[in-house]
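This entry is listed below:
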Amino acid sequence: MAAVYPKTWAVALALALALSSFAAHAQSAVHFSPAFRFTEQSGEQLFANVCQGCHMPDGKGAVGAGTYPSLAANKNLEAGGYPVYVVVRGQRAMPAIGAMMSDDQVAAVVNYLRTHFGNDYKDAVTAEDVKAVRP
């Protein structure tokens, strides 16, 4: 039985080395915001790194483990205050991700949504608009 332990340790060591190599590669290949705040500044970056996981890269939403509404050609985005409120405070299954963004970041991602994916709303929301919605 004593002969089994050296093999077990060798396998465990090889596995640990492989995983550490994979983790080092994964960290260099993927950018994640540190801690509780997002670091992305542009609306496009925020959408790509925060929103598209649920709302899809084309903004058309998805149905599966949950229902993620389409943001494409969405009339609910016409009044700028509505998407600001949803991002800052959340709604139904949408978490209040605005808590992890500055007022400028919320304004940037909302303005991006309102001018992309078949939306053409020109009246930009401002950081002051976001500040007014915060609890």
